Amino acid sequence: MKKILIGGGSGLIGLQLAQMLQKSGYEVRLLSRKKRSNLPYEVFQWDVKAGTIDPEAFRDLDYVINLAGAGIADKRWSDARKKLIIDSRVETTRLLWKYIREMELPLKAYVSASAVGYYGDRGEALMTEDATPGDGFLSESTKQWEDAIFSGPENIRTAAVRIGIVSSTQGGALEKLILPAKYGVATYFGNGKQWFSWIHISDLCRLFLFVLENDTINGPVNGVGPNPARLRELVAGIRKSVGIPGLMLPIPEFLMRIPMGEMADVLFSSTKVSSAKAEKAGFKFEYPTLMPALKDLLETKR
For strand 2-7 and strand 126-127, is the pairing parallel, antiparallel, or unpaired? Predict the structure, then answer.
């Protein structure tokens, strides 16, 4: 049985991915800061500040997936919060590579989360994996993250999935947009023309599994669906899917900048991202278009 270790496996993506991997015949192990007994996987402790991981987590290991990282939009971006966002990604990555090197693990692959924030605000341009990083904190932090990801041993295949807007009713940006629509109000930010590159959470988990098992995939790969949507289109789709006529209310950028500060970049950056690399490698999306994806998410509560 193939053995896989997941860092940050107790979050929104990690728990669904762990379940998919287990159904696909993997022995799944999770890294956690605390001991857990309520999950159907072996859980091993790690302490990033202390620089320690339970060595048993690496026993006869075949693969590593790292999803660890503090939430980008959970709190206002103070200097301390920015440092935490970067350190929670970079230091977990460095710690994993430290153990992998010291134990001389013959891993088949190391696959990490990354983010389309790498590209920054790029307007109408279509971003492929070979694009240069953009400007601003989102780009800066993701660039530092990927520098750490691709600092591992050359003999281990390494890939980074640049995740877009994850479509799920259980967390993330979509959940926050669905909530006001249920009460008859659909909000969008600014003029609503900014591009949001989204992906159904099931397709994202399937993409991680695909990248894990496809020996031809190295480097960054965009974790987005093939049909990005403008924010106003996304909100209109949510309103239609929820089945409430409601109102379409724009929120001016300056009003969001007051409480959110620089973090409002998450809402107003336009990032139109290509899924061509994954598709050319043979990946097939189950939910390539917006309305069927929203319908499934609202029906299944995924």
Answer: unpaired
